[in-house]
Design brief:
With 441 residues, this protein is of the alpha+beta class. It contains 17 helices and 17 strands. Strands 1, 2, 3, 4, 5, 6, 7, 14 and 15 form a 9-stranded antiparallel sheet that branches. The chain has a two-stranded antiparallel ribbon with strand order 8-9. It has a two-stranded parallel ribbon with strand order 10-13. It is an enzyme of class 6 (ligase). GO terms for molecular function: ATP binding; glutamate-cysteine ligase activity.
C-alpha cells in the first residue's frame, strides 16, 4: 500500500471539477511516457512456515534496516515511531500490513531498465535475507496460518484501516495481511489516451489474472482457486474494488472515475498528525466537511490510494490483476503492458482480443479466471486459447516501440505454450511435498 508522505496541499477543494483537473494535470507528452514496477514478497524464517513479526533481531524492522548498507535511508512517520520504509533516490521499500515486503521501483522508459533495477534489488535483498536467516517466497497468498496468528506492522494507516476497511467486507483483513501482488504503472498523454489504455487494460485483465495466477494454497490446504488472492478482493469492499461500471459499459472518462471515487467511503483522513475515520463518503465529506474542516486536495490524494479497482488511476494507471510471482514474471508484466498500452496498434488489437462481453459477463469471466486460471471458459474456448496471441501482440508492439523489451516476454511465452499458470506447478508441488513445499518451489 501507499507510503503516506507529508501532506503539502492543504487547499480546500472547491468542487468536483478540481478533481477532474487533478487527472488532467497528470497528462504527459508522448516522449515522456514512463513505467514502473512494484513487487510484493512474503517473508519467512529459513526452514519455517511461520510469519515474521516486525520486532526482533530477525524481524521485518531489521530486514528494512539491513538495506542501509546499500545506501537506503530510513523513513518514519514521526521521529519517535518505528521505521516503516527505506528510500534510495526514487526507489522505495515499504511494508504491507502483514509484513509483505514491497519494492516500488523507479520510473523508466523501458521495461528492460526496470528489470535491471529489479535484478539489482533482488541481489541486495537476498544478501540481507541471508544475513538475518530469512527467506522470501513469491506467492500471491500466504499458504500457511490464519488471521489471528498474523502480526500487524506498526504503520499508522494500517491501524485505522484495520477498523474502517474491516467493517466493509469479510475478506478485508485477508487482503491486508495475507496477499501479495505484482503491479505495473504507466502514463497517459490526454483523456482520450487514458480512456483507451484503461479500457484495454480492463478487457485483458481476466487473461492477465489467469496467466499470473499463483496462490492456490490457503491455510495449508488447496483452496480450489488458482488465484485466491484475487478471490479475496471480491469481499473486501464492493464500493472501492473490482471494475467500476464505467470501465465496462463504454462511458469511462476522467469525470466518470471521479464520480465513482466520490461515492466510495473514506477509510481515513489525516488531521494534526493523526488518522481519523470520518465514516462518510468522499462526496459527503466534500459537501459538509468533517469536524469543522473542509476536504483538501491532500485528502483526495490519500483517498485515491485507498481505492482498489482492478485498474486504478492516481497520477498513473496501475494494473492490479497479477499475483506476486518470480522477479522475472514481474519484469515480464512491465514488458507486456508497455507493448500493449504504449503502441496504439497493439492496444487496439488487445482491446478486441477477447469476445465482447457485457459488464456482467466480464465480471463472471474474472471470477472464473480466479478459480480455473487459463482453463476458464470464454464461449466455446478457454483463456488459454488467447494467451499466445496476447503475448504476440505485445511482442509486435515492443518491436515497434524499440528498447529491447521483447526478451522479457519469455516467461509469458512459456506459460502460453504450457497453457497453465504458475498456480498449477505450485499445486503439484504442494501435493507432492505437503507442508515443506516452499522448499521446492
Amino acid at each position: 500500500m501507499s507510503l503516506d508522505v507529508k501532506q503539502t496541499e492543504h487547499r480546500p477543494i472547491g468542487n468536483a471539477d478540481e478533481l477532474v483537473q487533478f487527472l488532467r494535470d497528470a497528462e504527459r507528452p508522448t516522449g515522456d511516457l514512463l513505467l514502473g514496477l512494484e513487487h510484493e514478497r512474503l517473508i519467512f524464517p529459513q526452514g519455517s512456515n511461520e510469519p515474521v513479526p516486525y520486532g526482533g533481531a530477525s524481524g521485518i524492522g531489521a530486514l528494512l534496516n539491513g538495506f542501509k548498507q546499500f545506501g537506503f535511508t530510513e523513513f518514519r512517520e514521526a521521529p519517535d515511531l518505528p521505521v516503516i520504509a527505506m528510500q534510495r533516490g526514487t526507489e522505495t521499500l515499504t511494508l504491507e500490513p502483514g509484513g509483505q515486503f514491497e519494492l516500488a521501483g523507479s520510473p523508466f522508459k523501458t521495461a528492460l531498465e526496470a528489470h535491471r533495477e529489479n535484478q539489482r534489488h533482488n541481489e541486495e535483498f537476498q544478501q540481507v535475507l541471508a544475513q538475518l536467516k530469512l527467506r522470501s517466497v513469491n506467492l500471491g497468498y500466504r499458504p500457511f496460518f490464519t488471521l489471528p496468528e498474523m502480526p500487524w506492522m506498526p504503520k499508522s494507516r494500517y491501524g485505522v484501516m484495520r477498523a474502517s476497511l474491516g467493517a466493509r467486507g469479510s475478506h478485508a483483513h485477508h487482503m491486508m495481511l495475507m496477499t501479495a501482488t505484482g503491479q505495473v504503472s504507466l502514463d497517459w498523454r490526454d483523456e482520450a489516451d487514458c480512456v483507451a489504455k484503461v479500457v484495454a487494460s480492463v478487457r485483458i485483465s481476466p487473461l492477465l489474472l489467469a496467466m499470473y495466477a499463483n496462490s492456490p494454497i490457503v491455510a495449508g490446504k488447496a483452496s480450489g482457486f488458482q488465484s485466491f488472492r484475487s478471490r479475496v478482493w471480491n469481499d473486501v469492499d464492493r464500493a472501492r474494488c473490482g471494475y467500476p461500471q464505467a470501465m465496462l459499459d463504454g462511458s469511462f472518462s476522467y469525470r466518470a472515475y471521479v464520480e465513482w471515487a466520490l461515492d466510495a467511503p473514506l477509510l481515513f483522513i489525516r488531521r494534526d498528525g493523526k488518522y481519523v475515520w470520518p465514516k462518510l463518503t468522499f462526496r459527503e465529506f466534500l459537501a459538509k466537511g468533517f469536524d469543522g474542516q473542509p476536504a483538501t486536495h491532500s485528502d483526495w490524494v490519500d483517498h485515491l490510494s485507498t481505492l482498489f479497482p482492478e485498474v486504478r488511476l492516481k497520477k498513473i494507471i496501475e494494473i492490479r490483476a497479477a499475483d506476486s510471482n518470480a522477479p522475472e514474471m514481474t519484469s515480464a508484466l512491465g514488458a507486456v503492458m508497455r507493448g500493449i498500452l504504449y503502441d496504439a496498434q497493439a492496444r487496439e488489437a488487445a482491446t478486441h482480443l477477447l469476445p465482447k462481453l457485457s459488464p456482467d459477463e466480464h465480471r463472471a469471466l474474472h471470477d472464473a479466471a480466479q478459480k480455473d486460471g487459463l482453463s476458464a471458459a470464454v464461449g466455446n474456448k478457454t483463456l488459454a486459447d488467447y494467451a499466445a496471441e496476447f503475448v504476440s501482440i505485445a511482442h509486435r508492439g515492443l518491436e515497434r516501440l524499440g528498447g529491447g523489451d521483447e526478451v522479457l516476454l519469455a516467461p509469458l511465452q512459456k506459460i502460453a505454450a504450457k497453457r497453465a499458470a504458475p498456480a498449477v506447478h505450485v499445486l503439484a508441488t504442494f501435493e507432492k511435498y505437503g507442508t515443506s513445499f516452499l522448499d521446492h518451489l
